[in-house]
Amino acid sequence: MMNEKEKFVNELRKSLEQNTFVKLQFGKYRGDDRDFQKITVTKINVKEGERLSFNFKYTTKDIVKNFETQKGVSLSGEILGNDFLSGTLFTTENDFTLDHSRKRIPSLHKKKPTFRDKEPAVHNREKVRIADPSAEYFRLLGISTAEGTVRSGMYDKFRQVDKFIETMDSLFRSSGLNEKDEIRITDMGSGKSYLTFALYDHFLNKLNKKVTVTGIEKNSELAGLSNKISWECGYEGLVFKSGSIEEAELGGTDIAVALHACDTATDDAINKAVRAEASIIILAPCCQKYVRKKMRVPENLRGIFGHGIHEERLAVMLTDGLRALSLESKGYSVKIFEFISSEHTARNTMITAVKGNQNNNEAENEITQIRKEFSIDDFYLDKILNK
Ligand SMILES: C[S@@+](CC[C@H](N)C(=O)[O-])C[C@H]1O[C@@H](n2cnc3c(N)ncnc32)[C@H](O)[C@@H]1O
What is the mean pLDDT of the chain? Predict the structure, then answer.
């Protein structure tokens, strides 16, 4: 009789034979490499025929290796229960999850299928794309395959990049900056730099601007990798600097971007952008912890905001709301909106700010009032922006 792991591998083999395979994911890594995170396996077609494409995801890079189907299936069997304690097979018929206990005893669970369609992202394809998945940098960054299609595990990331470029494009076209031939952009906390590359490509090749994009990233390995890819693409105006946002030099920046710069790194980015008098600022804040630690819910609101989850959400809204008011106080006109559906990412709030002519004292008064109401004596952005 087959054991649970053999049954899982058998389901994998069957799904490939019957063409119901969607993707396979390995999680709960228990190996020695601290940077290794997970493996996603998809089916691809190359010149030589069908292959299983293994995307080995590390903190700072993705390594992709393609295997013949049979080899890929037996490799999956070897990985499971050894370096990875869990595997999920998505097929159009069912999802199968194989878990291992601490003593490495496998158990198999079967659920209704997450994807009834073999290509989970197919509905998104119908939308007009701004970013081009076949661009060389998307391949080098591990977003797309050699054939120029988005890897199934990377679709949410690609969608985010695409939506961001769309937002930036419309802001830019409606701003005075549109008249300028030369545009300088700084992306603070550029990370794996998917967005930074797409931004450079868009301004250079779609908007036909002479553009300089600088990515600021405190992780020197990530900055180095991004510089290497930029060099390989021949992108002379796209450079990455290893360093902190707090110490970044933004003089002359027209557009300042900080997407998912955690907690107060977003405040540092706002401070730098405002001081550089950037015409457009785009932020996607995340991990808003600072205000949560400093605020106190007023007694008359405790009935509603006394619950942990509500207090957490309130802290997020207060943080971003106070950021918006701070930008308004410096003469920016600000919008806060959900830039991508929460189906793709939970970190989906965007703040855009476009520079006007006059500081707004009323916004300043509102900040004072709200801080008093919620006993926020210590507000990080205020400390750095108004010192
Ligand atoms: C979650 S990633 C986001 C990357 C990219 N902006 C995106 O949205 O895909 C945040 C990145 O910001 C970098 N970062 C965080 N705080 C920073 C700081 N104070 N100075 C420079 N980089 C910072 C981190 O190292 C990380 O690579």
Answer: 90
User: In this structure, is residue 125 part of a structural domain?
Assistant: no
Pairing of strands 280-286, 349-355: antiparallel
| Percentage of residues of the chain with pLDDT beyond 70 | 94
Nearest CA to ligand 1 atom 8: 259
Q: Which of 35, 214, 245 to mutate to test the pocket of ligand 1 (most atoms within 8 A of CB)?
A: 245
Tell me which residue range forms the domain holding 195: 138-385
Whether residue 47 lies inside any domain: the answer is yes
Which 8-state DSSP code applies to residue 352? E
Residue indicated by tokens 């700010």: 353
Residue 330 included in any domain: yes
Q: With beta carbons less than 8 A apart as the criterion, state whether 273 and 250 touch.
A: yes
User: Residue written as tokens 């470029």?
Assistant: 165
Considering only CA atoms, which residue is closest to atom 27 of ligand 1? 191
- Testing ligand 1's pocket by substitution, the residue of 143, 165, 218, 347 carrying the most ligand atoms inside 8 A of its CB is 218
